[in-house]
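We store sequence, tokenised fold; for instance:
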Amino acid sequence: MARSKTGDVSFAHYPPSYYAAHHPASADAPPLVGDQHAEVCVIGGGYLGLSTALHLARAKRDVVLIERARLGWGASGRNGGQLHVGMRREQGWLEKHVGRDDADRLWRIALDARDHLDWAMHSYGIDCDLRLGHLHLDHKPSYVAHSRETVALMRTRYGYDHIEFVDKDRARALVASSDYHGGTLDRRSGHLDPLKWALGLARAAALEGARLHENSAATSIRRINGRFVVETAQGRITADQVVVGCNGYLDGLVPQIDARVMPINNFIAVTAPLGAEGAQAIIRDNLAVSDSRFIVYYFRMTPDHRLLFGGGENYSYRFPSDIAGFVRPHIARVFPQLADVGIDYAWGGALAITPNRMPCIRWVEPGLLNLSGFSGLGVLLAPWFGKLAADGLTEGNDDLDLMTRLPSQRFPGGKLLRWPTMVAAMTFFGLVDRL
């Protein structure tokens, strides 16, 4: 069994998630053996890497992708399936911190990312159980005014008519919880099966001619005689360019990024079936839901009428011994009526965050591009950023250039002290959530 710095896990098999239990065999991607040559080597078989490989192959570039575990094994295949239109930061925040012009461009990028999902699903027949409608709820009455202001901003300044304000009565009619006081409903956002989405991208990339290899961890990246050499345990790839899309599983592969992107462990539980009427009684209209807590709760119903609930994070290298027991109190906080419901699946994994919650897109050196730190919004953003990366490597891309020049902060204390400082900060904000 391989051991990750972000939890005790096996790289040979998918985590025991609801998705893995309900999904057919993955794309054919044998381990890398021996020496290979390519124009581009992509490291990481999640949304970012798979989409980069897909679009490079569509552009007739010779591309090889390697993944340390199974394709879609990391956050891409085990997340909550929440589909958010936008960046991790709201447009009002972006206008203040990057200026109106760049905020406008970032919103256009977010809309392009949403269109890209529809394009990929239609072009390659990817059925990933997409359902539209995302409800963001305020767990404190004082937050409701901000939700109303956000809707006004998005509808008037950005012309985004898919979003609407939800008052307390409607919030509680849509979600059977007294924990919430209002929020916003976005009809263009929603939820999907994240593993089906990832493996659909993998099949599309293979169809276009990308060479995909699972169970092939990159151990080093070196430049030799003007080209990059990516080493694995059983082989190597020599390439002109390299894209690194490891997100929460960099583990020191690109030291220049370690101080800017940090993995945290997040946990999900899925209940026993509630039945169609029971599911509708908990969440109306099959909506995806997330809330305003700093340590976010997010939940939705599965196609077979189970509650899928994400709640609780930890910052150690190990997972809780009882993940179902770890998540259960969070479920009960929102849904006391489900305090004793059976839990059939529970799992955890790492996602990557940045200090300002904006993606860390950086040319580490000419020809070596890192894209990571999607801070929970990778389902929609990471595949589109794979397209931007492919365009940037092929002919240049203005939107990629914008992302590379946005502020990318370091965690206080750099790599060595980022863990204790983040634990202190998250503990504090977790306390604020409960007040």
In short: The longest helix spans residues 100-124. The chain has two domains: 18-79+195-262+356-425, 131-192+263-352. The first strand starts at residue 34 and ends at 43.
